[in-house]
Amino acid sequence: MSAVPLLKVNDVSKFYGSRIGCRNASFELYPGEVLAIVGESGSGKTTLLSCLSTRLMPTSGIVEYHMRDGQYRDLARMAEAERRFLMRTDWGFVHQNPAEGLRMTVSAGANVGERLMAVGDRHYGNIRAAACDWLTRVEIDEDRIDDQPRAFSGGMRQRLQIARNLVTSPRLVFMDEPTGGLDVSVQARLLDLVRGLVHDLGLAAIIVTHDLAVARLLSHRMMVMKDGAVIEQGLTDRVLDDPREPYTQLLVSSILQV
Amino acid sequence: MNDLATYNFAYLDEQTKRMIRRAILKAIAIPGYQVPFASREMPMPYGWGTGGVQVTASILGPGDVLKVIDQGADDTTNAVSIRAFFQKVANVAVTTRTKEATIIQTRHRIPEETLKEGQTLVYQVPIPEPLRFLEPRETETRKMHALEEYGLMHVKLYEDIARNGHIATTYAYPVKVEGRYVMDPSPTPKFDNPKMHMSEALQLFGAGREKRIYAVPPYTEVVSLDFEDHPFEIQKFDKPCALCGAENVYLDEVVLDDKGGRMFVCSDTDHCEDRRAHGHAGHMLARPTPESQEAAE
Fold it and tell me: DSSP states of B80-100 as a string?
């Protein structure tokens, strides 16, 4: 891990009118690091993720990103064109529901190739080759390249969504409940895949999940949220094995042991 | 007795024309950009050229010579009725000859004869937004135009090649205007796309239902989108026109009987007639016999 953080989050709060979305979140994320945000429904996980990924504007606080040119930029002050360019090149966003992140009416190949075309790739053969390569890497058969995601199972769709996001070699990927709605065996394979990719590509990732097992498997560090506030953060193993806050203890102890 | 004017030249009132002219000027200033305008109800249904008619009505002067074509032909329903409309409401001279016309309103073709400086081509446009079928949200497509995010257009072409082995889009083929805006050239066949490039004539596009006007000023770069390894190509025809023998023109297929008989003829009727008048003949052109000439007399 390099000594310079990729993302610096300073005192980010988001209010929906008088209601609190999330408040006073501060942390730093380093390249290659996977951070899990856990907590129950309504605890502000997704709001925080949206603030970090510029899908929502924070009410207060600063989110700074370490650009490829070595400068830190305040995401809220970035021009829209630049922000959108960043989002489709240097970042990825994996939605819980693959239909939100995919174009359901165009083929798998075009879904993967879209980002390449958006950054100016104009060679059909190269785009297709890259799409083939990525489908293989996410364990989708190459002969499904011309099928639409509508014809794919839930797990395949989720893997396709991941391929579509990773094709431009982003440095930071946001994932919102990436395994939600998948059955356990498919979940396990997906987690295995994501763990491999994150490791091989040196990705930094922020993963929102309510599933502590997902956090345990994927993340180096985790943050526990309750009522919009971060109540505990630290190394994943430390937080899960030795939870300090009463709420975290409750959360950990409420996992079913099979 | 009311003192409201009951007649105004070219149907539209002057305030409306003024509003449309302002939209046209803006469109010319930003080639390929879709300018919103307050489209009026016209005495014809949407889809029959209400946008084109409003543009024509706004630029028409008493000295203009108007030609109206529908799929290249001067004698089909849409062309005949719009021509009659302007004869009635503006009493302008009309013609079928491309050379003589100062304003040509068209549905889905660009005349074969190269247009000259001083001529204006008015297109009837059903759907002005080239990104519409890929991105249904208008707010989003506008943003994409503003930020020049046109990767999605190539997704469509990619899908074409993936499904058909070649770019199968044959009409409404997207173009990039002056290196900036991606534009839908209205449902003209892609055969006509190269004619838009550096054209001497002014090209105006009116979409009545969608309330948009856009333009390509004379001598403007119009480039059809493509892939490096799948370059843009226009349609090719095996045979020349069966009536006038013309090659390298856009042909319509005409079914002759129920035994598979068919012929291919120029879609541009004026061009075809002109060539025949100059003695060109295709293999199916009826030759005048002495009897038929007698019958005609």
Answer: HHHHHHHHHHH--EE-S-TTT
Are B229 and A125 a contacting pair at CB < 8 A? yes
Q: Catalytic residue at B32?
A: yes
- pLDDT of the residue at A135: 94
Tokens representing B128? 């002005």
Closest by CA to A114, choosing from B142, B141, B149, is B149
| Three-class DSSP category at B13 | coil
Residue B282 lies in a domain: yes
Residues B178 and B262 both lie in one domain: no
Longest dimension (CA), chain B: 70
Among candidate residues A221, A134, A217, A126, the one with its CA nearest the CA of residue A169: A134
**pTM for the whole structure:** 0.86
Beta bridge partners of B68: B105
User: Which residues of chain B are under the pLDDT cut of 50?
Assistant: none
User: Does one domain contain both B124 and B60?
Assistant: yes
8 Å CB contact of A117 and B147: no
Mean pLDDT in runs of 10 for chain A (258 residues)? 84 93 94 92 92 93 93 92 91 92 92 93 94 93 93 92 93 91 85 89 91 90 94 94 92 77
A106: alpha, beta or left? (left if phi > 0; alpha if psi -120 to 50): beta
| B5 domain residue, yes or no | no
Contacts of A104 in chain B (CB under 8 A): none
Residue A35 Cα to chain centre, angstroms: 9
pLDDT value of position B54: 97
Same domain, B92 and B206: yes
Distance from the B161 Cα atom to the nearest Cα atom in chain A, whole angstroms: 8
Domain identity same for B217 and B262: no
Residue from the list A84, A110, A119 with its beta carbon closest to the beta carbon of B147: A84
The number of beta carbons lying within 10 Å of the beta carbon of residue B144 is 21
- Amino acid identity of residue B255, one-letter, is V
Q: What is the ipTM of this complex?
A: 0.85
